Amino acid sequence: MYNEGEKILVILSSPSGVGKTTLTKKIQQKYNNFKISVSHTTRQPRSNEVNGVDYYFVSVEEFQKLIAKNSFYEYAKIYENYYGTLKENVDQTLKQNDIIFDIDWQGTKQLSKFKKLKLVKIYLITHSKEELKKRLLSRDENTPKEIQKRFNSFDEDIKHWNDYDFIIINKNLEVCFKQIENIIENFKKKTSIYPQKFL
Ligand code: 5GP
Q1: Measuring CA to CA, which residue among 160, 146, 169, 165 is closest to residue 19?
Q2: What fold characterizes domain 9-37+97-198?
Protein backbone atom coordinates (compact mmCIF):
# COMPACT_ATOMS: atom_id res chain seq x y z
CA MET A 1 0.00 0.00 0.00
CA TYR A 2 1.25 3.43 -0.95
CA ASN A 3 0.24 6.41 1.18
CA GLU A 4 0.25 9.84 -0.40
CA GLY A 5 3.41 11.82 0.30
CA GLU A 6 5.51 8.75 1.06
CA LYS A 7 8.87 8.62 -0.64
CA ILE A 8 9.27 5.99 -3.33
CA LEU A 9 12.20 3.92 -4.57
CA VAL A 10 12.24 3.35 -8.31
CA ILE A 11 14.44 0.49 -9.48
CA LEU A 12 15.63 0.34 -13.07
CA SER A 13 17.27 -2.93 -14.06
CA SER A 14 18.30 -4.24 -17.45
CA PRO A 15 20.96 -6.25 -19.21
CA SER A 16 24.09 -4.15 -19.63
CA GLY A 17 23.84 -1.67 -22.52
CA VAL A 18 20.09 -1.06 -22.65
CA GLY A 19 20.34 2.63 -21.74
CA LYS A 20 19.52 2.47 -18.05
CA THR A 21 22.21 4.89 -16.87
CA THR A 22 21.12 7.57 -19.37
CA LEU A 23 17.48 7.15 -18.34
CA THR A 24 18.32 7.30 -14.64
CA LYS A 25 20.14 10.60 -15.17
CA LYS A 26 17.29 11.99 -17.30
CA ILE A 27 14.78 11.27 -14.56
CA GLN A 28 16.88 12.97 -11.96
CA GLN A 29 17.41 16.03 -14.17
CA LYS A 30 13.69 16.43 -14.76
CA TYR A 31 12.48 15.62 -11.25
CA ASN A 32 14.37 17.45 -8.53
CA ASN A 33 12.77 15.30 -5.87
CA PHE A 34 14.60 12.22 -7.18
CA LYS A 35 18.11 11.42 -6.08
CA ILE A 36 20.18 8.72 -7.73
CA SER A 37 21.38 6.05 -5.33
CA VAL A 38 25.17 5.99 -5.45
CA SER A 39 26.39 2.43 -4.97
CA HIS A 40 29.64 1.13 -3.56
CA THR A 41 31.70 -0.97 -5.93
CA THR A 42 35.04 -2.72 -6.12
CA ARG A 43 35.15 -2.21 -9.91
CA GLN A 44 37.85 0.09 -11.30
CA PRO A 45 36.54 3.55 -12.26
CA ARG A 46 36.14 4.26 -15.97
CA SER A 47 37.87 7.37 -17.32
CA ASN A 48 34.67 9.47 -17.17
CA GLU A 49 33.58 8.34 -13.70
CA VAL A 50 33.86 10.38 -10.53
CA ASN A 51 34.17 8.91 -7.03
CA GLY A 52 31.12 9.79 -4.93
CA VAL A 53 29.07 10.72 -8.00
CA ASP A 54 28.92 7.61 -10.19
CA TYR A 55 30.01 5.17 -7.48
CA TYR A 56 31.94 5.03 -4.26
CA PHE A 57 34.98 3.11 -5.45
CA VAL A 58 36.33 0.94 -2.63
CA SER A 59 38.73 -1.97 -2.18
CA VAL A 60 37.52 -5.55 -1.77
CA GLU A 61 38.65 -5.41 1.88
CA GLU A 62 36.57 -2.30 2.57
CA PHE A 63 33.58 -3.83 0.84
CA GLN A 64 33.87 -7.05 2.83
CA LYS A 65 34.05 -5.09 6.07
CA LEU A 66 30.78 -3.37 5.15
CA ILE A 67 29.20 -6.78 4.41
CA ALA A 68 30.35 -8.06 7.80
CA LYS A 69 28.82 -5.02 9.52
CA ASN A 70 25.51 -5.69 7.74
CA SER A 71 25.69 -2.18 6.28
CA PHE A 72 24.09 -3.01 2.93
CA TYR A 73 20.41 -3.22 2.01
CA GLU A 74 21.63 -5.34 -0.85
CA TYR A 75 24.83 -6.34 -2.58
CA ALA A 76 25.87 -8.64 -5.40
CA LYS A 77 28.90 -9.92 -7.21
CA ILE A 78 28.57 -9.02 -10.90
CA TYR A 79 31.25 -9.65 -13.54
CA GLU A 80 33.70 -10.48 -10.70
CA ASN A 81 33.18 -7.18 -8.87
CA TYR A 82 31.05 -6.33 -5.86
CA TYR A 83 28.27 -3.75 -6.04
CA GLY A 84 26.09 -2.70 -3.11
CA THR A 85 23.67 -0.15 -1.68
CA LEU A 86 24.37 1.20 1.81
CA LYS A 87 21.41 1.26 4.21
CA GLU A 88 22.57 4.49 5.76
CA ASN A 89 22.66 6.37 2.42
CA VAL A 90 19.18 5.19 1.44
CA ASP A 91 17.60 5.93 4.82
CA GLN A 92 19.14 9.39 4.93
CA THR A 93 18.01 10.27 1.38
CA LEU A 94 14.48 8.96 1.95
CA LYS A 95 13.89 11.55 4.67
CA GLN A 96 13.63 14.21 1.95
CA ASN A 97 13.69 12.57 -1.46
CA ASP A 98 12.53 9.80 -3.71
CA ILE A 99 15.32 7.56 -4.95
CA ILE A 100 16.16 5.97 -8.25
CA PHE A 101 18.33 2.85 -8.37
CA ASP A 102 20.35 1.41 -11.21
CA ILE A 103 20.88 -2.09 -9.81
CA ASP A 104 20.65 -5.66 -11.07
CA TRP A 105 18.06 -8.40 -10.46
CA GLN A 106 19.94 -9.82 -7.47
CA GLY A 107 19.81 -6.48 -5.68
CA THR A 108 16.16 -6.02 -6.61
CA LYS A 109 15.30 -9.38 -5.03
CA GLN A 110 17.08 -8.43 -1.81
CA LEU A 111 15.52 -4.95 -1.60
CA SER A 112 12.06 -6.50 -2.10
CA LYS A 113 12.40 -8.23 1.27
CA PHE A 114 12.25 -4.87 3.07
CA LYS A 115 8.51 -4.34 3.14
CA LYS A 116 8.82 -0.81 4.54
CA LEU A 117 10.38 0.33 1.25
CA LYS A 118 7.87 1.50 -1.38
CA LEU A 119 9.45 -0.01 -4.48
CA VAL A 120 8.50 0.48 -8.10
CA LYS A 121 10.43 -2.15 -10.06
CA ILE A 122 11.00 -1.54 -13.76
CA TYR A 123 12.86 -3.85 -16.14
CA LEU A 124 14.20 -2.46 -19.42
CA ILE A 125 15.06 -4.53 -22.40
CA THR A 126 16.18 -3.97 -26.01
CA HIS A 127 14.05 -5.29 -28.84
CA SER A 128 16.88 -7.50 -30.10
CA LYS A 129 20.14 -9.01 -28.94
CA GLU A 130 21.88 -7.61 -32.02
CA GLU A 131 20.85 -4.11 -31.00
CA LEU A 132 22.34 -4.76 -27.57
CA LYS A 133 25.65 -5.88 -29.06
CA LYS A 134 25.77 -2.70 -31.18
CA ARG A 135 25.22 -0.57 -28.09
CA LEU A 136 27.86 -2.38 -26.07
CA LEU A 137 30.37 -1.98 -28.90
CA SER A 138 29.64 1.70 -29.27
CA ARG A 139 30.68 2.33 -25.65
CA ASP A 140 34.39 2.78 -25.78
CA GLU A 141 34.97 2.30 -22.07
CA ASN A 142 34.88 -1.51 -22.08
CA THR A 143 37.54 -3.96 -23.23
CA PRO A 144 36.45 -6.61 -25.82
CA LYS A 145 36.59 -9.21 -23.02
CA GLU A 146 34.24 -7.16 -20.85
CA ILE A 147 31.85 -6.57 -23.74
CA GLN A 148 31.67 -10.31 -24.36
CA LYS A 149 31.06 -11.01 -20.65
CA ARG A 150 28.24 -8.47 -20.53
CA PHE A 151 26.72 -9.77 -23.75
CA ASN A 152 26.88 -13.36 -22.48
CA SER A 153 25.05 -12.47 -19.29
CA PHE A 154 22.01 -11.27 -21.28
CA ASP A 155 20.24 -14.66 -21.30
CA GLU A 156 20.67 -15.15 -17.55
CA ASP A 157 19.62 -11.59 -16.79
CA ILE A 158 16.34 -11.62 -18.71
CA LYS A 159 15.21 -14.78 -16.89
CA HIS A 160 14.42 -12.48 -13.97
CA TRP A 161 12.01 -10.09 -15.70
CA ASN A 162 9.19 -11.72 -13.80
CA ASP A 163 10.38 -10.20 -10.52
CA TYR A 164 9.50 -6.70 -11.80
CA ASP A 165 6.28 -4.66 -11.83
CA PHE A 166 6.80 -3.25 -15.33
CA ILE A 167 8.71 -4.33 -18.42
CA ILE A 168 9.62 -1.68 -20.98
CA ILE A 169 11.09 -2.37 -24.40
CA ASN A 170 13.53 0.42 -25.11
CA LYS A 171 13.28 1.02 -28.86
CA ASN A 172 13.38 4.78 -28.54
CA LEU A 173 14.87 6.59 -25.56
CA GLU A 174 12.32 9.43 -25.51
CA VAL A 175 9.35 7.05 -25.65
CA CYS A 176 10.90 4.91 -22.96
CA PHE A 177 11.46 7.96 -20.76
CA LYS A 178 7.82 9.00 -21.17
CA GLN A 179 6.71 5.50 -20.15
CA ILE A 180 8.81 5.66 -17.01
CA GLU A 181 7.38 9.08 -16.20
CA ASN A 182 3.85 7.71 -16.59
CA ILE A 183 4.60 4.81 -14.26
CA ILE A 184 6.00 7.13 -11.59
CA GLU A 185 3.18 9.64 -11.89
CA ASN A 186 0.51 6.94 -11.79
CA PHE A 187 2.11 5.35 -8.77
CA LYS A 188 2.16 8.69 -6.96
CA LYS A 189 -1.50 9.19 -7.86
CA LYS A 190 -2.17 5.68 -6.56
CA THR A 191 -3.57 4.63 -9.92
CA SER A 192 -0.82 2.23 -10.84
CA ILE A 193 -2.00 -0.85 -12.57
CA TYR A 194 -0.86 -4.02 -10.93
CA PRO A 195 0.01 -6.76 -11.49
CA GLN A 196 2.67 -6.61 -14.11
CA LYS A 197 2.15 -4.76 -17.34
CA PHE A 198 4.08 -4.75 -20.59
CA LEU A 199 4.67 -1.29 -22.03
P1 5GP B 1 28.56 -1.14 -14.40
O2 5GP B 1 29.82 -1.85 -14.05
O3 5GP B 1 28.27 -1.18 -15.88
O4 5GP B 1 28.51 0.26 -13.84
O5 5GP B 1 27.37 -1.93 -13.69
C6 5GP B 1 27.22 -3.30 -13.87
C7 5GP B 1 25.91 -3.75 -13.29
O8 5GP B 1 25.89 -3.55 -11.89
C9 5GP B 1 24.68 -3.00 -13.84
O10 5GP B 1 23.71 -3.97 -14.20
C11 5GP B 1 24.19 -2.20 -12.66
O12 5GP B 1 22.79 -2.04 -12.67
C13 5GP B 1 24.62 -3.08 -11.50
N14 5GP B 1 24.76 -2.35 -10.23
C15 5GP B 1 25.27 -1.12 -10.03
N16 5GP B 1 25.22 -0.79 -8.73
C17 5GP B 1 24.65 -1.83 -8.10
C18 5GP B 1 24.31 -2.09 -6.72
O19 5GP B 1 24.52 -1.31 -5.81
N20 5GP B 1 23.74 -3.29 -6.46
C21 5GP B 1 23.47 -4.21 -7.43
N22 5GP B 1 22.90 -5.35 -7.06
N23 5GP B 1 23.78 -4.00 -8.73
C24 5GP B 1 24.35 -2.83 -9.04
Answers
A1: 169
A2: Rossmann fold (3.40.50)
